[in-house]
Structures are given as C-alpha cells and as structure tokens.
Design brief:
The chain is mainly alpha-helical and 154 residues long. Among the domains are: 11-54; 104-149. The chain is built from five helices and no strands. The chain has helices spanning 11-21, 27-36, 45-54, 94-128, 132-149. The radius of gyration is 35 Å and the shape is elongated. It starts with 10 loop residues before the first helix and ends in a 5-residue tail after the last helix.
Length: 154
C-alpha cells in the first residue's frame, strides 16, 4: 500500500529545509522553528553546525549584539589609541635591526653551505687516499668555519 501523506524526514532534513530558506540561520533559530512546528525533542547545535558545514555554510554565525550595547557609549568618541606595548621592531632602529638580522642570516647560510662543500671535498680526498696532509688542511679550514658560525671573528 502506498502512503498518501508526507512523512517527517527527521531532524537532519528539517535543518536542511530551514537552511535552504535562510542560510544565515543559526542553531537557536532552527531550534525555535522546530518547536514552532510542533515537533518533540530538541536539535543539538552540533547537528546544525554539521549540516551547515556539509552545505558549505560553515562559519561563525552568532545572534549578534543587540543595538546600543556597544563598548563605547553614544557620547564617547574613539580616540584611536591602541592598548598594550608597542612591538620592539617599531622605533628609530627598526630598519637597521631588520637589515642586520637579514645580513647575519645570509652570512650564516653562506658559511653553512661552504662547510658542506668542504665536507664533500674532504670525502673525495679521503676516497683517493694517500693525501693525509690535504685532509688535515681541509679539517682545519672546516674548524675555522665553525668558529665563524659561532661568531668568533678570529
């Protein structure tokens, strides 16, 4: 026998129908509509958020702040002052500090690359064999690079 009446599809279908009519509906509005329709039980916020996400409507939908409840009273003007400490980078020496950091970063990177190249060369000399004096010299050069990386200028 074929049913002639419409069947309630459940909470999920109801949420989808409400969101189709009003994409900005939040969980509170959907629960209110559920109660107004006369259905029993409640709809969880998790189910509403999941359906919003599946429909591509995810985001922070809040009821909003009632008008007139703002932080500033109507007669107060915004002064434009920001609270808290200023970042250390602001000030007279900000650009010089940034340039020094960039230069030291480049130098460190270049010294590290040179150290890797000396290692490769040292392994090639070791493979040849019989060149212990050159091996020792390369090791000494690598030690000098380590000192330069640590900030020792000598």
């Amino acid at each position: 026998m074929v049913a002639t009446g419409t069947q309630n599809q459940g909470k999920t279908q109801f949420i989808r129908e409400v969101l189709a009519r009003d994409p900005r509906a939040n969980a509170r509005k959907i629960c209110k509509a559920w109660e107004e329709e006369g259905y029993e039980g409640t709809i969880s916020q998790t189910l509403v958020n999941k359906q919003r996400s599946l429909l591509g409507l995810a985001g922070n939908i809040k009821g909003g702040r009632p008008k007139g409840s703002g932080v500033l009273a109507a007669n107060e003007a915004y002064t434009g002052k920001k609270r808290g400490r200023k970042p250390k980078s602001e000030g007279a020496n900000a650009s010089a500090t940034v340039e020094r950091r960039a230069a030291s970063g480049r130098r460190s990177s270049q010294l590290t690359q040179m150290e890797a190249e000396i290692d490769r060369l040292l392994f090639r000399v070791m493979d040849l064999g019989g060149l212990e004096t050159i091996e020792d010299s390369l090791r000494q050069a690598r030690r000098l690079l380590y000192k330069a990386l640590d900030g020792d200028p000598s």
